[in-house]
Design a protein that fits this description.
Elements (H helix, E strand, L loop, with lengths): L12 H26 L4 E6 L14 E7 L3 H13 L4 E4 L13 E7 L8 H11 E12 L5 H13 L1 H4 L9 H7 L3 E9 L11 E8 L4
Parallel strand pairs: 1-2, 1-4, 2-3, 4-5
Antiparallel strand pairs: 5-7, 6-7
Helix pairs in contact: 1-2
The chain binds S-adenosylmethionine.
Length: 218
């Protein structure tokens, strides 16, 4: 079903290798959050910016198929390996969030984890998410962004201006996912704010929000 888009919309080979290692090492602590994020999903799912595919093992058996979009070549190759081990069918596809290479209204759910921080254009990304969901389709998200007190927020904004995104594969630490979902016309469901990792120092990347949004049914 997906059409094959441009192969390397994003190129961050050094970050990709570091992320692959770091995220795999963090999986014992982070895995339960991924599992909770995806619990209860069913039908056709599109995952945006799937990275090295760490969500794949957590999709429940009620999911009939996943199209996992990943623009970065190194991460995409790792995602293909993860897809082969997944308990549900996963098709890993190159492409960017701002122009998803899939049909409109084709999916029951969309998954965004740790990706709104990194896309080039949040507004276009969420417009695309809305387009590819069927009316009433669900978004599951686990994202980090602006948080903490005034000093932390000022620090996050400064880091984003001072080159953090260049060092960390395009990641920004001062975006506001909940406001972005609202602005995109998605109906916000329940969400909760978390500090991750649970233990250790609080970092500019620690301010997470996990929740659900919907494409309006009408
Ligand atoms: C921090 S990683 C998170 C990966 C994965 N979602 C996870 O939960 O581990 C950010 C991901 O966003 C991807 N990404 C960056 N820009 C993107 C874009 N414009 N469209 C889609 N994905 C993008 C990166 O290649 C990377 O896989």
């Amino acid at each position: 079903m997906p059409s094959r888009g441009s192969r390397d919309a994003v190129r961050h080979p050094v970050f990709a290798r570091c992320y692959a290692r770091f995220s795999a090492a963090a999986e014992p602590g982070f895995g339960p959050y991924r599992r909770k994020l995806l619990a209860g999903l069913s039908g056709r799912v599109v995952e945006i910016g799937a990275g090295n595919g760490l969500n794949f093992a957590h999709f429940p058996g009620t999911v009939s198929g996943v199209v996992a979009i990943e623009p970065e070549r190194t991460l995409r190759q790792l995602a293909v390996t993860a897809a082969a081990r997944a308990g549900v069918p996963v098709d890993v596809v190159p492409g960017a969030a701002e122009a998803l290479p899939v049909r409109s209204g084709a999916f029951d759910a969309a998954v965004l984890s740790l990706v709104l921080c990194s896309v080039r254009d949040v507004e276009r990304t969420l417009r695309e998410v809305r387009r590819v969901l069927r009316p009433g389709g669900e978004v599951r998200f686990l994202e980090h962004g602006l948080g903490g007190g005034p000093v932390m927020r000022r620090t996050q904004r400064t880091l984003d201006r001072a080159g953090w995104p260049l060092l960390f594969g395009g990641c920004h630490v001062s975006r506001e996912p909940v406001a972005a979902f609202r602005a995109a016309g998605l109906e916000l469901g329940p969400y909760r704010r978390l500090l991750l990792p649970e233990r250790g120092p609080v970092l500019p990347t620690s301010y997470f929000v996990q929740g659900t949004a919907w494409r309006p049914a009408g």
